[in-house]
Amino acid sequence: MFQISCSKKKMFSNSSFNDNLLNSLNNANSHKFWQLWKANFNKADNNSRFKFQDLKTDFEIANYLADSQKASCSPNSSELNSKLQQNYFSNKATRNGLRHFDHITLSTFAIDKAISDTQSNTASGADNICIEHLKLAHPSVILILKNIFNIFLSIGEVPTDFGVGIVIPIPKFKGSKVNVSADDFRGITLNSILSKIFERCILPFFNVLSTSSRQFGFKKGLSCMHAINTVKNTIQFFNKKGNSVNLGLIDVRKAFDKVSVWGILILLQNNDVNSSIIDVMEHWFRVSVARVKWNDAFSMPIALSAGVRQGSILSPLLFSVYINILLIELEKTKLGCFINGRCFNSFLYADDLLLLSISVVDLQLLVDKCSEVLLSLDLQVNIKKSMCLRIGKRFKSQCKCISINDQAIEWVSEAKYLGVTLKSGLNFSCDWHASKRQFFKAVNSILGALGPNPTIQVALSLFRSNCVPILTYGLAAAPLSKAELQSLTFAYNNIFYKLFKTSNSDTIEQCQFFCGFLPLYAEVDYWKFCFLQSSCKGMGLNRANEFNCSDLADLDRITCKYNLTIFDSKPCIKYKIWNYFENSLT
User: Fold this and answer.
1) Which of 21, 46, 200, 357 could bridge across to 336 with cysteines, CB 3.0–4.6 Å?
2) Is the pTM higher than 0.85?
């Protein structure tokens, strides 16, 4: 009787919890939904389980991690750093004597827009001021901020609190590791909300800065898919000409933490950014400090002498413009892949560098040039994380070793690039096993948490938001064989097999239709068409250009299959694909 009572109580508890989740979903109360989920399944966010050698108190651990952060955010070469600093002040003296810049004044409209553009629930910094304090404050606050911010610009300084970042260590690893070191954590920095408002206000004054079309990171309308697709098209273009393409995936060691602040300031000078803005940035870099938080303990402040400020609004732009020098210099070499005079020998997504060449000799020269330019920027190549890959009819041929400073870069059969695994072979292809493995882990964790008889609407809602993006990432840009699509479809249908207790494919499609899910083939076609449609509108797909032929073939196939047009809106595209799916069931 006791066991039966326990079993009934457990079933009632699971049912009650599922009902509460379902009510939150039906009432469109996402905050309540995730509050319930975290209360029941998330482990306490406590770092006490981790053990550091010879460290006992939270304060000791915080200072240990802070020392590691300080070492990461320091120049690779103190000699080069001093030289860049001298060059900056020399340029500054010359500019002040020769060039007059307009006085900058921020308007109340700029302040108001900056506050509105900042998302609600953004984490606060060391001052504990939240964005909601400003959004819900009296309108006079905007006028006060305008006057204060204009004072900053006139004196060329910001408050020291603007430079303080609270670093929250996040484990890099997954699992139950206990004995750890500083290398097992990466920091997430929380900055002052007021500093972010100020950054948004001065952001328009950096419009003179631009980057190469081969830098895909931190650009509106561009994503990893655009970078992957461009690399795919480049490789396919040369493969069709009978050439094998050699890929060099170069890892820049701690790029964001190691860029020279003086190098960035010199770059701003060379691009004629207003001197008032440069003075503010110079002072901001000087007062940049970090404090590591471990449980409830804070480390002593540590000065950051290199790197862009993590969590800053301006940092992505400053970093991408600084490292863009590398793309400019690689293009000047005239080595590697060029199509009709246009450079395709190198691509960057933030700090992820990819080199392309049909000649192994040229690849070595590109790697040498890359190492040389990075050293001039006070950055270094991480040899251990860099690798080479070969795609084309001679992919099995043994190649000459590629090296940097007599250290060999390994030739591999597969390599990860922007979240997808590229395979060495006759043609451009990807390995989807890692995606499927992560997908199954996510599905099983959801079903395990919801119990043996979960509410279908709750389970599928979590499946759509947490699992489908894992499986479908990269499919919009990468080619898929029939076998790969079948394998991915089997994984996608797995949750429907378990929820509806059937393995019949026709029944599964009926269940998907009435639950509001497209089958995977239609889902892939939808995302691929939307991606290609945006490419047509943005960069254009020229039918006379062999470079885009695979994209155009996919676009024509999907357009014909679902009776779509390039001008259809996303709701219209979805409607036509649903019509096709519905008709295929009858």
Assistant:
1) 357
2) yes
